Amino acid sequence: QSALTQPASVSGSPGQSITISCTAHSSGIGGYNYISWYQQLPGKAPKLMIYDISNRPSGVSNRFSGSKSANTASLTISGLQAEDEAHYYCASYTTGRILVVFGGGTKLTVL
Amino acid sequence: QVQLVQSGTEVKKPGASVKVSCKAYGYTFNNYAMHWVRQAPGQGLEWLGWFNAGNGYPIYSEKFQGRLTITRDTSASTDYMELNGLRSEDTAVYYCAKDTGYSTPVGMNVWGQGTTVTVFS
Question: Which of A3, A64, A87, B56 has the smallest CB count inside 10 Å?
């Protein structure tokens, strides 16, 4: 069981907005701001979409946004497009014995 | 162009060791930390460890303590990940990933292409 819990799957229609949650089960995670989100297309390496909870790297669409409230971080994708269909993973720096933990991943289906 | 190029596919027998290299291009190698992440077939991402560029030491996930060694060759702009005592459950794609920072894991903004390691008797 991951210390970060994500829904196994979410879906949405083109043009809609969806939100993927990432809930921490350890105080060592909830207290830090180093939450990041990754998109992984089939057969490809992951791609950084959000870091430091809400910052977008250069080149990432502003349709992707991140936020955090208490022990839950969220990734919101607005104006869904077919190319957004992928697996999404959250990750966090922790003070535990595993420095970085990943969530279990969420498969996004664009209907 | 910033990129990480990893070594090729490996097939190993149980109990053997594997060493994967990750050569960096296009940035000041010493200024950034490097993570190692793996993904078993059909599974999610798993963090193995990283090389902290701030203090020059690796940190390993507790799960891999004693089996994993991460090293850095600054002169070659290359990091290495060696995993010993391989078992079938170590079969996975292994990635190196550059962090945006050097001593605190902020985010992995550049990834290698992945190295497939198959443990097969």
Answer: B56
Decide: helix, strand or coil at residue A30.
Answer: helix
Quote the distance between the C-alpha of residue B118 and its chain's center: 16
* Binding-face residues of A in 1-40 toward B, CB within 8 A: 2, 34, 36, 38, 40
Q: Tell me the backbone φ, ψ of residue A54, rounded to 5 degrees.
A: -140, 5
Q: Tell me, what DSSP letter sits at residue A55?
A: B
Give dist(CA A94, CA A27) in Å, integer.
9
Residues contacting residue A50 through CB under 8 Å, at least 6 positions apart: A35, A36, A37, A56, A60, A64, A65, A66, A75, B107
Residue of B nearest to A6 (CA): B44
- How confident is the model over A27-80, as pLDDT tens digits? 656 556 789 999 999 999 999 999 999 999 999 999 999 999 988 999 999 999
Closest Cβ–Cβ partner in B44, B46, B106 for A51: B106
